[in-house]
């Protein structure tokens, strides 16, 4: 019941357009007298709890390197066994002046739809998978440094959302994506008929890369030209990397950038970052659960 009262109190305190307390109590099935009784409890007890929550919220926010909004903070508190309403967390974050980092404005440079071409799209925007390694997606993104560009190729497992393969270099030639997919094949025991999906970049559609996939027993899949939604899972990782790390850093050298990005992938994104698509669990947690189910079957 306290969660409902906290929601009403937070809405009334933070939203000028909030309905009257009588209406909110009626809509949420609680009594107005009960709400005012809760609200009139000794202020010291309520204030003490709010201050304790603020400390935990600040800890969760700092642990996320300033990347979590109130929903992920709320879920992190729940993982710690701390019960608080999401709207109370939101209100306290406002009081603390905490706000998650925001993406920069972005406009697609290519919008013309391309033909499917000779390599099929085996994914069709369905990024779900029953087992680790059965379906993977990949992409290349770039990171600016004072030395010049660093190019990052990634391979993401659709079942767990974990980055299971990655490679970085000062160019984006085919060996870059070859290193990433070979790392993925080393990290996971890929099932028969595994799929690797990418955009229609020249490296991904090259004969050299097709031969690498064939040698690994992986079926190739590509989306349409200029349709970013056909590879949205890989694009989502790139966006998270840029918003949560790259755009907040200045890299004097390629080496510094590579070290920092490797730490982000392995220590932050894979191990600690809560994913809404995974029920606010980490990729490593989900991967471990999947592998344990396979062993128990």
What does this structure look like?
- With 297 residues, this protein is an alpha/beta fold.
- The protein is 46% helix and 12% strand.
- The chain contains eleven helices and five strands; from the N terminus they run ααααααβββαβαβααα.
- Strand 1 (135-145) and strand 2 (148-157) form a beta hairpin.
- Helix 1 (2-14) crosses helix 6 and helix 4 crosses helix 5.
- The radius of gyration is 23 Å and the shape is elongated.
- The two termini are 41 Å apart.
Order of helices and strands: HHHHHHEEEHEHEHHH
Choose one word for the global shape. Answer: elongated
Helix/strand/pairing class, anyone?
A: alpha/beta
| End-to-end Cα distance | 41 Å
Strand numbers in spatial order across the main sheet? 3-2-1-4-5
Name the beta content range.
5-15%
Helix content: 40-55%
Provide the descriptors you would attach to this structure in a database record.
297 residues; alpha/beta; 5-stranded mixed sheet; 11 helices; 5 strands; 12% strand
SSE inventory with pairings:
Elements: H1 2-14, H2 21-27, H3 32-39, H4 43-63, H5 70-79, H6 86-96, E1 135-145, E2 148-157, E3 163-169, H7 174-187, E4 195-198, H8 207-216, E5 219-222, H9 232-244, H10 254-269, H11 283-296
Parallel strand pairs: 1-4, 4-5
Antiparallel strand pairs: 1-2, 2-3
């Amino acid at each position: 019941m306290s969660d409902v009262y906290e929601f009403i109190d937070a809405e009334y305190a933070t939203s000028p357009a909030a309905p009257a307390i009588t209406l909110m109590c009626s809509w949420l099935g609680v009594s107005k007298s009960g709400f005012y009784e809760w609200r009139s409890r000794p202020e010291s007890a309520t204030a003490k709890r709010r201050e304790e929550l603020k400390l935990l919220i600040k800890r969760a926010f700092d642990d996320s390197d300033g990347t979590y909004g109130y929903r992920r903070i709320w879920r992190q508190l729940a993982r710690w066994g701390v019960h608080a309403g999401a709207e109370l967390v939101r209100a306290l974050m406002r009081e603390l002046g905490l706000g998650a980092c925001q993406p920069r404005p972005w406009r697609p440079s290519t919008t013309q739809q391309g033909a499917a071409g000779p390599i099929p799209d085996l994914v069709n925007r369905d990024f779900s998978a029953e087992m680790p390694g059965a379906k993977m997606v990949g992409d290349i993104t770039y990171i600016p440094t004072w030395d010049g560009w660093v190019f990052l190729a990634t391979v993401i497992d659709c079942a767990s959302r974990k980055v299971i393969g990655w490679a970085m270099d000062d160019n984006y030639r085919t060996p870059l994506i070859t290193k990433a997919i070979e790392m993925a094949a080393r990290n996971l025991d890929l099932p028969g008929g595994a799929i690797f999906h990418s955009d229609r970049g020249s490296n991904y559609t090259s004969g050299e890369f097709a031969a690498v996939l064939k040698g690994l027993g992986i079926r190739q899949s590509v989306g349409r030209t200029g349709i970013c939604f056909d590879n949205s899972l890989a694009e989502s990782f790139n966006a998270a990397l840029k918003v949560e790390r790259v755009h907040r850093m200045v890299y004097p050298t390629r080496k510094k950038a590579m070290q920092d990005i490797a730490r982000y992938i392995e220590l932050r994104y894979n191990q600690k970052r809560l994913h809404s698509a995974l029920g606010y669990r980490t990729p490593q947690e989900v991967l471990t659960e999947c592998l344990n189910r396979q062993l128990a079957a």
